[in-house]
Specification:
heterodimer; B: 6-stranded mixed beta sheet; 4-stranded antiparallel beta sheet; 11 helices; about 35% helix; globular; disordered C terminus
Chain lengths: ~270, ~280
C-alpha cells in the first residue's frame, strides 16, 4: 500500500507551479475578501447595518496609536542616515547644503510611506494574522457564523477601516520624523540653522509629492489588512498553521507593497508626469 | 434499527437528515447518514474519533455543505441554503462549541449579551437583566465582569451554553459538551442539558463519545462508525444491540472488532474506506 515516490527531474517545475498557484489563490482570496469588505463597509451601512464603533476605536489604538513610537523612532533614524549619506556624497560635488532638499523629497515621495508600511506589515499585519488565526483554531469564527454574525463585518471591517485611517497618518509622522532626523544631522555637524534647513527642504518639495505619498500609504493599508486578514481567516492545522499564516502575511504584504510601489512610481512620475 | 422515512419531515420533527454524504479529498467521511429529532427530544450522536460526528454537526448548523442528501431544520429544507438564507434559521438555534468558543477580547457578560445586542432591539437595561438571568441558569451568577482567560474550562463551557440560549432558541446543538471536563463538571453540563429540556422544552442534538453521559441524557441515539449509521434507536435499544462494535463502545473495551493494534497501512485503508469489510467481518 505504501507508495515510495522517486524524485523526478520535473519536481522543480512542480514546485514553481505550486508556488505560482498559491500566489494566484492568495490574490483571488484577498480580492474576494476585499469585495466582501467593500459590501460590509460601504453598502451595508447604507441599509442601517453599521460597523461596530467600539471595535474600530480599539483597532485605531492597537494598530495606529501604539505604532507611533516604533514608526517615529525608525523614521527619525532613517532620516539621519539618509542625511549623512547624501551630504557626504554631495560634498564631493560641492553641494553639501542641498542635502535637506534631497532628503525631504525622497522621504515624502517614497521613504515615509514605504518605511511606515513595511513596519506596519511586521507589527500590525503579523498580529492580525495571528489573532484571527487563533480565533479560527479556537472555533470563535464558527461561533460567530453560527450566531448569524458575519466574520467580515465583525473582525475584518474594523481592522481595514482603522488601518486605512491610521497608515496615512503614520506615513505623515514618518515624513516629519525622517526630516527631523536630517535636521538634527544638519544642525549638529554642519551648523545649519532651522530657517536655512527649512528653506532648503521645502524649496524643492511640492504638494503633489506629499499627497501622492499619502495616497500610496492608503492603498498599502488595504494590501496589508487584506492579506493579513485573509491569511488569518484561512488558517488550518492548529498552532503550526497560525505560525505559517503569520509569516506568510508579513512576507506577502511586503512583497505586495513593493510591487504596488513600483506601479505607483511608474504611473505617477512617468505616465502622469506628476 | 428504525430508519426515518425518506422525504420531508412530519410536523413535530425539528431536525431531519436524509442520506447525508460528505467527501473530503476523495475520502467518504459520511455515507448515507439519516436520523430525525422530535420536538423536545435529546438526540445523541456518538462514535469514535474520526467517525464523522463532528462533520454531521457542522452540516446541521450550516458550516459545511453535504455532497448528497437533505437536511431539514424546523421543516425547512436547508440543504442548498447559502449563508444569507441560513441567517434567519441560525437565530432559532444555539450552538455550544467544544471549547466554549468565547471571544477572549470580551468579558463573560459581553459574550452572553452579544447575540442580544446584534439581533434584538431591546433596551440595554433589559439586555443586562437577560444576560444575568442566563448566567444564573448555568450557575454562574456574578461572573459577568470576568474575562474568559480568568475562568476554568468547565465555566467557559457553561458561559458558552448561556450564550447559546441567550435568544431563547428552540434547538441547541452541543459539540462534545463533556470533553476535557472532570466528572463533576461533566455531570453539571448533563444536568443543564436535561434542565433546558424540562424547563424550556428545548430540543437538543448532542455530539459526544462519553457513554455514561450519552445514556444519561439521550431520548434517542445515533451511533456512527466509519461514516455510516451503525445503530439508531432509544438508549435501551442501543444497550441491547447485538452489534459487536456497539457493544465494544458501550463496554469501552480496548480490543474487539475495533482492534487494539493497527498497522499504518490498515489505518490508511480504513480512512479510504477499503478495509471496512475486513474489520466488520472479524
Amino acid at each position: 500500500m505504501t507508495n515510495i515516490r522517486l524524485p523526478s527531474i520535473l519536481d522543480p517545475v512542480a514546485i514553481i507551479g505550486k508556488k505560482f498557484l498559491d500566489i494566484i489563490k492568495l490574490i483571488g482570496g484577498v480580492g474576494l475578501l476585499l469585495s466582501d469588505t467593500f459590501f460590509w463597509g460601504i453598502i451595508a451601512p447604507l441599509t442601517g447595518k453599521f460597523p461596530d464603533r467600539k471595535s474600530i476605536e480599539k483597532q485605531l489604538i492597537d494598530e495606529g496609536v501604539n505604532s507611533v513610537p516604533i514608526v517615529g523612532l525608525l523614521s527619525f533614524t532613517v532620516g539621519l542616515i539618509l542625511a549623512m549619506q547624501t551630504s557626504f556624497n554631495l560634498e564631493k560635488l560641492g553641494a553639501a547644503t542641498y542635502f535637506p532638499a534631497l532628503v525631504a523629497v525622497a522621504t515624502v515621495r517614497e521613504l515615509g510611506p514605504l518605511i511606515s508600511s513595511i513596519i506596519i506589515s511586521g507589527r500590525v499585519g503579523a498580529s492580525i494574522a495571528a489573532e484571527l488565526g487563533t480565533m479560527v483554531v479556537a472555533e470563535e469564527i464558527d461561533a460567530l457564523r453560527s450566531m448569524s454574525l458575519h466574520p467580515v463585518r465583525f473582525l475584518v471591517i474594523p481592522r481595514v477601516i482603522a488601518l486605512f485611517i491610521m497608515l496615512p497618518c503614520l506615513a505623515m509622522l514618518a515624513n516629519v520624523a525622517s526630516i527631523a532626523g536630517a535636521f538634527v544631522f544638519g544642525a549638529s555637524t554642519l551648523d545649519m540653522s532651522f530657517a536655512s534647513f527649512k528653506q532648503m527642504a521645502f524649496e524643492y518639495m511640492t504638494d503633489t509629492d506629499v499627497w501622492t505619498g499619502l495616497l500610496k500609504a492608503a492603498v498599502f493599508s488595504f494590501l496589508i489588512s487584506g492579506i493579513s486578514c485573509y491569511n488569518g481567516l484561512t488558517v488550518t492545522g492548529g498552532a503550526e498553521g497560525v505560525g505559517r499564516a503569520t509569516t506568510r502575511s508579513v512576507v506577502f504584504s511586503i512583497f505586495a507593497i513593493i510591487i504596488a510601489d513600483g506601479i505607483f512610481t511608474a504611473v505617477f512620475y512617468y505616465l502622469l508626469k506628476l | 434499527m428504525i430508519i426515518p422515512e425518506l422525504g420531508p419531515p412530519k410536523e413535530n420533527i425539528i431536525v431531519k437528515a436524509n442520506n447525508l454524504v460528505k467527501e473530503f479529498e476523495g475520502r467518504r467521511v459520511l455515507d448515507n447518514v439519516s436520523f430525525e429529532v422530535k420536538k423536545g427530544e435529546v438526540l445523541v450522536i456518538m462514535g469514535g474519533s474520526g467517525c464523522g460526528k463532528s462533520t454531521t454537526l457542522r452540516i446541521l448548523i450550516g458550516l459545511e455543505k453535504a455532497d448528497e442528501g437533505n437536511v431539514w431544520l424546523f421543516n425547512e429544507n436547508i440543504t442548498a441554503y447559502d449563508d444569507k438564507q441560513f441567517d434567519a434559521i441560525r437565530k432559532r438555534f444555539g450552538v455550544l462549541f467544544q471549547s466554549g468558543a468565547l471571544f477572549n477580547s470580551m468579558t463573560v457578560g459581553e459574550n452572553v449579551s452579544l447575540p442580544l445586542h446584534q439581533h434584538t432591539e431591546l433596551d440595554e437595561n433589559v439586555i443586562q437583566i437577560i444576560m444575568r438571568m442566563k448566567l444564573e441558569m448555568v450557575g454562574l451568577t456574578g461572573f459577568e465582569h470576568l474575562k474568559p482567560a480568568e475562568i476554568s474550562g468547565g465555566m467557559k463551557k457553561r458561559v458558552g451554553l448561556a450564550r447559546a440560549i441567550a435568544l431563547d432558541p428552540e434547538l441547541v446543538f452541543y459539540d462534545e459538551p463533556s470533553a476535557g471536563l472532570d466528572p463533576v463538571m461533566s455531570a453539571v453540563i448533563d444536568e443543564l442539558i436535561l434542565d433546558l429540556k424540562k424547563k424550556m422544552n428545548i430540543t437538543s442534538v448532542v455530539v459526544t463519545h462519553h457513554m455514561d453521559s450519552a445514556f444519561k441524557i439521550a431520548d434517542k441515539m445515533v451511533m456512527l462508525y466509519q461514516g455510516r449509521v451503525l445503530a439508531y434507536g432509544t438508549p435501551d435499544e442501543i444497550r441491547n444491540s447485538d452489534d459487536p462494535v456497539v457493544q465494544q463502545f458501550i463496554s469501552g473495551s480496548a480490543d474487539g472488532p475495533i482492534p487494539y493494534r493497527t498497522s499504518r497501512d490498515l489505518y490508511l485503508q480504513t480512512l479510504a474506506g477499503i478495509a471496512e469489510e475486513r474489520i466488520d467481518t472479524r
